[in-house]
Amino acid sequence: MTVQELPGAGASHRSTPPPAWRPRTDAAPLLPDAEPYRVLGTEAADRLDPALMRRCYAELVRGRRYNAQATALTKQGRLAVYPSTVGQEACEIAAAMVLEEQDWLFPSYRDTLAAVARGLDPVQALTLLRGDWHTGYDPREHRIAPLSTPLATQLPHAVGLAHAARLRGDDVVALAMVGDGGTSEGDFHEALNFAAVWQAPVVFLVQNNGFAISVPLAKQTAAPTLAHKGVGYGMPGRLVDGNDIAAMHEVLSEAVRRARAGGGPTLIEAVTYRMEAHTNADDATRYRGDAEVEAWKAHDPIDLLERELTARGILDEAGITAARDEAEAMAASLRDGMNADPVVDPMDLFAHVYAEQTDRLREQAAMLRAELEAEDQA
Amino acid sequence: MAQALTRAMRDAMAEDPTVHVMGEDVGTLGGVFRITDGLAKEFGEDRCTDTPLAEAGILGTAVGMAMYGLRPVVEMQFDAFAYPAFEQLISHVAKMRNRTRGAMPLPITIRVPYGGGIGGVEHHCDSSEAYYVATPGLTVVTPATVEDAYGLLRASIASDDPVVFLEPKRLYWSKADWSPEAPAAVPGIGKALVRRTGTSATLITYGPSLPVCLEAAEAAREEGWDLEVVDLRSLVPFDEDTVVESVRRTGRAVVVHEAGGFGGPGAEIAARVTERCFHHLEAPVLRVTGFDIPYPPPMLEKYHLPGVERILDAVARLQWEN
């Protein structure tokens, strides 16, 4: 029996449409532009703020150096794993730069650089990836949520926190970061829906870097762009060049301003590219060709800004050297910090499971303590 | 019991402005079981919030609210509807204190109406406690009396850790001579209580099976058995001492619960009792549980749920002859 032959098939067509329970709103203002928004290399660059751009440049150079140093540390066995953001530094830096002190950042596991750019000590930011503990900092002190390894699950946290802050009358915006693969997860959709319904002061930043480990965007979504996904939830979607830090800064600032003013959430898709493998454990040559990587090299976020700023006389050799020196100093201190062997306390295994330790855990802690003592005596 | 639960939330909300109730239908409707009845009216929609229908979103946003210092009380409507929220529960709610080395505890209460016996259709009657008790970082409590419903819910909301608060659906309409004006002291989370003293054997139970066990204990008197009944009230932490003390005295034990037996809480309890009471035991520790099947349709649930007869049969088997 085919579906058409099943009893009742085709009988559900209504002769008249049901009454709408509310008027349709116009989706047009929510739709993203057809092309990613750019500033560098366009007329919009005429209004660049020189001081801000010099800072962006120094941060980008520092971020690139941070990526290189962290990758080197994996080769030396100092880091268990490092998901590189080479090529994505403009997204990471801009995300941190547009937040005020009281705002919150909700990073994914790839976003250590954003946490560092927000002011977190680079060694603390790498605690998770080094393996001495899960979160190496107090989230409340820095207003940076723990790096989230499960995909998109931190997005509803950002919504809840922003909503709570608004209920308490506090001027707080939450910025949540996720990758292109993460947009397929249920938590992404639930977070966007809650944020829009509650008009929570949240900015969702999707870094579309082309691949979810090995799976390209075309196999991830059938939407014209990821920014289009905002429309269905009733929030504006913005499409922006993720390698153009001036554009990123402008679009993110605008979304943060809107959220702060009570205008609700924004979904931003930053179109960028992951120049390196997913992590050092991944072999990117299995799923992409050199030509594609080379093409993106010509669109490097640091080169883009450097060209624009030097052409406009905003940046000179001295400025470039100063930025590089600053980056080297950061790398040296990161190396020193990571070369010191982390001190771990085995009894920490039981210390933070519950506010009050259960009898069961007390028993197990005593067992481990006895094992450790026996080891010491041997 | 329903009114005691409502009262517990109401009192907690009145005392502490950071307590927020949230979930699907909890506002205007007062919940499908009316447990949140009147809270939105009294405290406003910002404190008793009808959320979009998405359990992961409900619990996930509650995490963010707790991160900011609120005490969310989340309603999951029905046991089997809580499953979409499991990733949030297991990967974040249960672990946040641990991941942050104590810097970020999450004081969230997750209310889950659970268990069968109300003639509900599928996905409305699961006994899901085994999933929760197997997750380190979660506190898991379940009241069996009206008094405990109030006391344990207040204690759960006051806890700095996430608590899965399992509400036995079929006891919602149970009545008691209880006044919220003078609630009896509940000795906090993690304390079991001997509900009936006896000398022949101990029935160890909790939640919806407590009334069944008390009824079985009365019926067993005719057979010459004087049964002690221990109500666990809290599955995590598990009050091992109260259980062990009872079994050492009676020498025999049966664990009774609705959840399936294989990998159910009864397996753990029986193992612990055996470890600590071995020389006091006159017979193996037995279990009377639901069958290891998906929850059956309403017309068949009476064959699945542990009843008085099945408990009495187990008690008879405690006359162990080796």
Put the structure in a nutshell.
Chain A: Pfam families: E1_dh (PF00676). With 378 residues, chain A is an alpha/beta fold. Chain A has 15 helices and 7 strands.
Q: Biggest interface and its residues per chain?
A: A-B, 41 and 48 residues
Instruction: Report the structural category of chain A.
Output: alpha/beta
Helix-strand pattern of chain A: HHEHHHHHEHEEEHEHEHHHHH
What is the distance, rounded to the nearest whole angstrom, between the alpha carbons of the first and last residues of chain B? 44 Å
Radius of gyration of chain B: 20 Å
CA radius of gyration of chain A is 24 Å
Q: Largest beta sheet of chain A: what is the strand line-up? A: 1-2-3-7-6
Sheet with most strands of chain A:
5 strands, parallel
Mean pLDDT of chain A: 94
What is the makeup of the main sheet of chain B? 7 strands, mixed
Order of helices and strands of chain B: HEHEHEHHEHEHEEEHEEHEHEHH
| Strand count of chain A | 7
* Helix amount of chain B: 25-40%
Count of DSSP H/I helices of chain B: 12
Low-confidence regions of chain A: none
Helix content of chain A: 40-55%
How many beta-strand segments of chain B?
Answer: 12
Low-confidence stretches of chain B: none
Strand content of chain A: 5-15%
User: How would you name the oligomeric state of the polypeptide chains in this document?
Assistant: heterodimer
Shape of chain B: globular
Describe this structure as you would to a colleague.
Chain B: Its EC number is 1.2.4.4. The complex is a heterodimer of chains A (378) and B (322). In chain A, β4 and β5 form a beta hairpin. Helix content of chain A is 44%, strand content 8%. Chain A contains 15 helices and seven strands. Chain B is α/β, with parallel strands linked by helices. Chain B contains twelve helices and twelve strands. Chain B is globular, with a radius of gyration of 20 Å. The termini of chain B are far apart. At the A-B interface, α7 and α8 of A face α3, α4 and α5 of B.
